[in-house]
Structure formats: C-alpha cells, structure tokens
Automatic annotation (TrEMBL):
Keywords: Hydrolase, Signal. The keyword Hydrolase applies. The keyword Translocase does not apply. Residues 1-31 form the signal peptide. It comes from Acrocarpospora macrocephala. Residues 27-425 form the BPP domain. This is Hydrolase. InterPro entries: 6-blade_b-propeller_TolB-like, B-propeller_Phytase.
Length: 439
C-alpha cells in the first residue's frame, strides 16, 4: 500500500488559505525598467532533435568541491538528453545518457530536475527526477575523478515514485520537480508529480553494494481550484485531464521550509516534512483569470482579468533557489518564466518582495523562459569569488537550422556573477560563514 495524503491538507481548507494569503502590492515593472545583468559564461548549445540526442536543457545544480572551490561543477538536466556536467567556464566535463525505455511501447528516461546532497554515507550525491520512468536516479560525485565525476549508484530495485506499474507510468503522471533536504532524522528528496498537484516526501536509504534507494514517506496535495475574493471559484485553464502542477522547488536548509512553485498559481511556503498547512505567499499575474481550452490551437483563450493576481510573477512560476546569508538572512529567487525575469524575495519572515532582474545579452546572449536556476554564495575560484548564479536559457542564440532549413530548438545554461545581480538589485554579497556541507 502506498502512503495516503493527509486529508486535512487537501481541498477547500487549502483553497481558503490561498485566497486569504497576503500578496505584495508593488506595481509590475515594464521590461525596460527591469535591471539587467549579463552572463560571464555559457554552456554549449543543446538541441532537442535526433541529431542533438533530444537534449532539452532544464535545471542546473552547483556542486561545491570540498577542497578546491575553483574545481566545482554544474550538473544540469537535459530531459531525454540525460545529464550534463560542466566546469565553471561552461565547458562540458561529462555526459550521462538517460535510461532506455524498458519496452517498445514504454517511455524512455527523461531527466527533469536535479539537486545535491552532501555527505550521504561519506559521499556527495546528485539526485535527479526521471519523469519518463517515474523514478529517482542517484549519482555519486567523486572529487578525484575530474573527467568523469558522476557514477550511477541508483538501487536497481528502486520503485516507481507515484505509480504502481509500468502501464500507469506510461500515462505520464510521473515524478517531476525536486528539492533535497537534510535534518537530524535523515536525508530526503521532495518531489512533485507531473500534471497533478501532489508533492511527495522520500527518504534516501542505503542499499547493498554501495547503492542508494528511497522510500515514500507521505504526500501532500495542493489545491487545484481556488475561491476568489468575489465568492466565485477559479480553476487554472489547462489541457483536459491536467491539473496545475508544481515544478520549481527549494528547501531552506536553515529553517526546514519548502518553497514550491505551482506554475499557473504562485509560490507556496510549507514545512519541509509536509506536516503543516501550506501558505500561498505570492501569486502569478494570471491568477483568477478564467480561460477556455481550444483543442484546435491547444491553447487557452483567456477571459477578463479582474485583478486577483499578483504583481511579480508571470506564469509559469518556475525555478526557485536560495542565496544564503548569515543570521538567517538571504534571498529567495524565482523564475518568472512568462516575462523572462527573476523575482527576489527576502528569505526571512513573510518573504517580502525586494525586486526583479533579467539576464540580458552582452558577451553572450541572455536567458529567456528559464525553467531552473541555482544561486551559490560560496567563493568559487577567481571568476566567481563572490558567488555564482546559474540559469537555464530556453531560447539560446544564435539559432541553428537543420538540413531542411527548420530552426532547431536550442537551449543551454548561463553563468552570472552574483555581485552583478547584487549591485543591480540592491542585494548583499556574503561569502563567508555558510557551508553547504553543514546544511
């Protein structure tokens, strides 16, 4: 039997929390008013076609080398293209293919999100959600193997996360977003479910032969419809059979708080062990806007915007990351995919909104429609001595065309100096006193 969602955390109670939660009221900035930073480096282009190995960039994670920070790495997902590892100048170090489909009619591996665990059984781990197979894939990081630092240590008996059999997995309601978390009780992965509103808490477990497995502890279900201030009920317009899913997630390791971005709704704050009631502390601008799905265009035709939404996020709300500072201070950053910006909130208190920035072109092109991002305040060599921000770029340029003249879908990852963001948005730089291996 699979654990059931706590009944007190689903349905109307959460809808009321969402409707009543406060939202900051600053006016949305116009694109030309948003502070712009530029990337120092970028990774090679990834192409989502047969010639490119169906590689479609999504989510990065920054691994900090235990002895030589300048040798730290960026691990990034590329869906069916698997996993890529880059050095701090964006050069590819390693590529790991996603698992093949187990049968002719089954889904192949599709790596969606990645996060890091430090010191599990004496090893650092990169944990990946495989949305094609509804599993976690787990890789040990070896600092002494610079040309092939990641090794697959996934328990071969690892179960499906949300499904019971292969037939259910093929229906695509599989594991999706990811955030890792450690406390005195163990090491965990929090995962979301594609096309659903579920979030699951998994405990990582040692397995024979140095492998790593996991066990589902509990699930929580966020609402799929919401009571609006005028007394009506609103449900985000999506394709038939789909609910408003979560993808971007991050755990505040100093507070044991999970932040989860429900793409068409906003950002939730909740206990990391999923034991308490979530609070929707900011909403996308499109929150409350009715829509009708058009099967011919496969798009939603929006109705009248009655002003129930927020001011800082344009759907989809996507990647979340935290920049830590001493004393519990710091910043929560969120990808506002719909307008190609990043919103910045205070880490402490009620997550008050601070400002916005975008990654624009200069030395390399900017970042658009970002899915995932990660900030790190640890000094990482000479170039990123004040910290690093890495973001997915969903529309990489220059564009490339195939033999038939068709434009190839082109993505990659951008590396930005933290001090450039701090200077433009009025944030602080703090690179001492926080150790990712002690969180």
């Amino acid at each position: 039997m699979r654990p059931l969602s706590p009944p007190s955390l689903a349905g109307l109670a959460l809808s009321l929390v969402a409707a009543l939660a406060p939202v900051a009221t600053a006016s949305p900035a116009q694109a030309d008013e948003v502070p712009t930073v530029t990337a120092k480096f970028e990774t090679p282009a990834l192409f989502d076609d047969g010639d490119g190995g169906n590689a479609n960039g999504d989510d990065p994670a920054i691994w900090v080398h235990p002895a030589k920070p300048g040798k730290s790495l960026v691990v990034a997902t590329a869906k069916e293209g698997g996993l890529y590892v880059y050095d701090l100048k964006g050069a590819q170090v390693q590529h790991i293919a996603a698992p093949a489909a187990p049968g002719e009619d089954d889904e192949p591996g599709r790596f969606n999100n990645v996060d890091l665990v430090y010191g599990f059984g004496g090893r650092d781990l990169a944990v990946v959600t495989d949305r094609g197979r509804d599993q976690l894939r787990i890789y040990a990081v070896d600092p002494a193997a610079p040309n092939a630092p990641l090794t697959d240590v996934t328990d071969p008996n690892a179960p499906f996360v949300f499904n019971d059999d292969q037939e259910q997995v093929n229906e695509a309601k599989t594991v999706y977003g990811l955030a890792t978390w450690q406390d005195k009780t163990g090491v965990y992965a929090l995962v979301s479910r594609r096309h659903q509103t579920s979030i699951g808490l998994l405990r990582l477990t040692p397995a024979p032969g140095g492998k790593v497995g996991y066990q589902l502890i509990r699930t929580l279900t966020l609402p799929s419809s919401f009571r609006l201030p005028d007394g009506t009920t609103w449900t985000p317009c999506l394709e038939p059979g789909e609910l408003a899913q979560v993808e971007g997630m991050v755990v505040d390791g100093g507070r044991d708080v999970l932040y989860a971005a429900q793409e068409d709704v906003g950002i939730w704050r909740m206990p990391a062990d999923l034991s308490g009631q979530p609070v929707l502390f900011d909403k996308v601008r499109e929150y409350g806007v009715p829509g009708v799905y058009d099967p011919e265009t496969e798009e939603c035709d929006p109705g009248l915007d009655r002003g129930f939404g927020g001011n800082h996020l344009s759907a989809d709300a996507e990647g979340l990351t935290i920049y830590y500072r001493n004393g519990g201070a710091g910043y929560l950053l969120a990808s506002s995919q719909g307008d190609n910006t990043f919103a910045v909130y205070r880490r402490e208190g009620g997550n008050a909104y601070i400002g916005q920035f975008q990654v624009g072109p200069r030395r390399v092109d900017g970042a658009q429609t970002s899915d995932g991002a990660m900030a790190m305040n640890v000094p990482l060599g000479d170039t990123f001595g004040n910290g690093l921000f890495v973001t997915h770029d969903g529309v990489n340029t220059p564009e490339a065309k195939d033999a038939d003249g068709e434009v190839r879908e082109n993505t990659n990852f951008k590396f930005v100096k933290w001090e450039d963001i701090a200077r433009k948005v009025g944030l602080r730089v703090e690179t001492r006193g926080w150790d990712p291996r002690k969180q």
